[in-house]
Predict the structure of WD repeat-containing protein 70.
Amino acid sequence: MERPGPSEVTGSDASGPDPQLAVTMGFTGFGKKARTFDLEAMFEQTRRTAVERSRKTLEAREKEEEMNREKELRRQNEDIEPTSSGSNVVRDCSKSSSRDTSSSESEESSGSSDDELIGPPLPLKMMKEPGNHIEEDIVGPLPPPLYEDAEDDDDDDDGDSEEEENPVQKIPDSHEITLKHGTKTVSALGLDPSGARLVTGGYDYDVKFWDFAGMDASFKAFRSLQPCECHQIKSLQYSNTGDMILVVSGSSQAKVIDRDGFEVMECIKGDQYIVDMANTKGHTAMLHTGSWHPKIKGEFMTCSNDATVRTWEVENPRKQRSVFKPRTAQGKKVIPTTCTYSRDGNLIAAACQNGSIQIWDRNLTVHPKFHYKQAHDPGTDTSCVTFSYDGNVLASRGGDDTLKLWDIRQFNKPLFSASGLPTMFPMTDCCFSPDDKLVVTGTSVQRGCGSGKLVFFERRTFQRVYEIDITDASVVRCLWHPKLNQIMVGTGNGLAKVYYDPNKSQRGAKLCVVKTQRKAKQAETLTQDYIITPHALPMFREPRQRSTRKQLEKDRLDPLKSHKPEPPVAGPELVLETGLPCFEEASAAPWRGPPGEELRPWPSPTELPADSQHQHVVEPSWEADPSVSAQ
């Protein structure tokens, strides 16, 4: 049996190449070819349409400018000829409008009857608003701004570039407040991530809490405590969640306290008699500094004089998590003076007393990932290392009065180095600005030899672009909070200063400067009122108040009130030549006399004859009974 071949179907109602198949399937559109589109042609047509619309928009704007110029000329003519009527103006406007419409019709490829002006000319108000007609003609997004708009954008771009080129304008130093911590050096500063509370620590062993929202213009701390007893505070830092504070002091045990100052945990002390520090459970010597992990809650790091850097967990205070042991090129121990985490928490950097900077992977404690041997002068304490916000640059503040920048991707030489920055404290800080364009550090001065400064360097060129004179003492700590955009400074004379700008800064010090100082409450003294009742019965009558002198005389006559206290019991004061104790001690113990006599005490000096009180006692023939004296 032969199958019918595909027959050609012509016409608009064709069901496909096989009519029986269409009948079988139940619909007539089966077998049609898919419609094809030429995308390049469509894009080209769209581009031409956009160019044509932009050209029409430009021409319309040019016509609008011409109309405005003609109107200005007419106004000038009207001022010159006040007698002229407004009909000519209307007629001229109608002529210009008809001229414009005729020119637009000639430009269009296909005109319509709707575009022709029919009837009287348009009023002046509609002529002054040609933008409405333009908006009706244009479909889709508007073309880029031209002429004046473009010039304005260029001016804005120039202004933005000037601001980007001059980061000094972003420094918030127009206003300042001073917080009185004490009389000794403020050696530690900490600010919580939200910027609500500031904590300061110093050489006076005190840690003080400052609440910006709760303070008034008196600037007083709401809490002061000594968490480490008689050890100087070296570092204070809030955790990434802001609920705990790491306290590092001169002892070998770091502490963690909560926001209110209560102790959360204390690290265990290691065994001093074990040679390998990796086998001890904690530090065995004085701490230098500490830092919280930026991502993991409850993990922090400390470095110590026992030549180790240890990581800890708050949940396990009985043993450290891991131990990093810095070594010299010869494999000898070297003491780390400062340490920090990278911004992502994967790297641990430490600066050592031999001038080297060593960087480890957080999970590999054996060999450092980067090691630069002569970053600073050997024998000087590098006081600070910190990472930039992008995580690629490391800044180090050396004890050799220098500040250096390092690229950890090419850790073979410093990018920049600045000298002439004296430092006399082992915890002098350096930090980056929130936009990563400036590097900030402080300088130290001798007492009475000038003022300490806060120095700003541009990160890209490392030029000294700005300075702030802080006070007539050294600048020890500096902290630039990214959320508040405020700079906190700790000085050598016990002051903590906060620099801010009302327009550039947020909250923080701005909350407390607007509050007036509370008035001091006057001390209320309670005095007993004396009620005079002259006609009361004697049993209800209160005694009359008398002078103090008479009362003292009366108390002197009272044997109970004027009783002389008993003198303290005196010890042995004199040993006679005979070897016997003095009368005061001997009178307290019984002595055995000659045989047959009962126990009797040693005679007191008053019982002796008068002529024998000042003579030596003759040694008796009897001896003291040791059993009785022992009793």
Observations:
- The chain has a mean pLDDT of 78.
